[in-house]
Design goal:
The chain has a 15-stranded mixed β-sheet that branches. The protein has helices at 32-43, 134-137, 172-179, 183-186; strands at residues 4-10, 13-16, 51-56, 64-73, 78-87, 90-100, 123-124, 139-147, 150-160, 163-165, 195-199, 201-206, 215-223, 228-237, 240-253. It is globular, with a radius of gyration of 17 Å. Strand 4 (64-73) and strand 5 form a beta hairpin. The chain is mainly β.
Length: 254
């Protein structure tokens, strides 16, 4: 097995490896790898991103995928970028991202919350037999509190074990997007063997660019009485918070 989520085939086409397989079946991906693949394509156009919103049009198949990108709204200080991921002409995932040109705001910086306990103080999470491969095994998971198979709020550190694309060292931002879709999973309140809790979208806001290999999520999930949930998290690197995430959830009994 290749040590990457995707193999480059040329002409913006990428072959999905078994590392991308998610919890809902062997033919569909966890949203982390395709999110990182689209962010990688956006970063090829602009060096930083301040907000990215993904819309999920359906399961992302474990197959050859085509990436396309464009600049929707050019500008000197602020630009809106977009990207899409498709298979055999069907769009499965889109992303729209704001790029804000950097400036020195050190004098007024503030409002950042407390840092999570560091990865060195966390413990490995146990992985059950019913989902022990694919994406879950391609990421190193550490628990400060709670975790993927412990219902409720969680503080978790994660570090991808593989590259996004073979032959390309992932950036810290690619690592973030490889992981943060898991906020709804680490703080889930349901047993995924009995319930669906699938996000229809993912929005990530960043107040600074991340550093390092580790990505922390201080995550929580709320489920309402009508089949809709909301998962949110504060995203951390080893220096402290870097941003936040939000996901709307489709919740149904299997």
């Amino acid at each position: 097995m290749m040590d990457a989520f995707y193999l480059p085939l040329g002409d913006d086409v990428f072959r999905s490896t078994p590392h991308t397989v998610g919890p809902w079946g062997p033919d569909s991906q966890h949203l982390g790898p395709p999110s990182a693949l689209l962010v990688r394509s956006l970063l090829a156009r602009r060096p930083t991103l301040s907000r990215v919103t993904f819309e999920v049009f359906g399961p992302v198949p474990v197959a050859d995928l085509t990436v396309s990108t464009s600049v929707e709204r050019p500008g000197r200080s602020v630009e809106l970028l977009s990207a899409s991921l498709s298979h055999e002409g069907r769009v499965a995932l889109t992303a729209r991202a704001w790029h804000i040109v950097g400036s020195d705001t050190t004098a007024v910086a503030g409002g950042v919350g407390a840092a999570m306990a560091p990865p060195s103080s966390a413990v490995p999470m146990a992985i059950p037999d019913f989902w022990s491969g694919g994406y879950l095994a391609a990421v190193e998971w550490l628990s400060v509190s709670g975790g993927i198979f412990t219902p409720g709020d969680a503080q978790v550190w994660a570090r991808p074990r593989v590259a996004v694309v073979e032959g390309s060292e992932p950036t810290p931002l690619e690592r973030v997007f490889s992981v943060v879709d898991s906020a709804s999973g680490v703080s889930s309140r349901v047993d995924i063997r009995k319930w669906y809790a699938i996000n229809t979208d993912l929005t990530v806001h960043l107040h600074r660019q991340p550093v390092g290999e580790w990505v922390g999520m201080d995550a929580r999930t709320t489920i309402g009485p009508d089949g809709v949930g909301l998962a949110t998290s504060t995203v951390h690197d080893v220096e402290g918070p870097v941003g936040s995430t939000a996901q709307a959830l489709f919740v149904r009994e299997r």
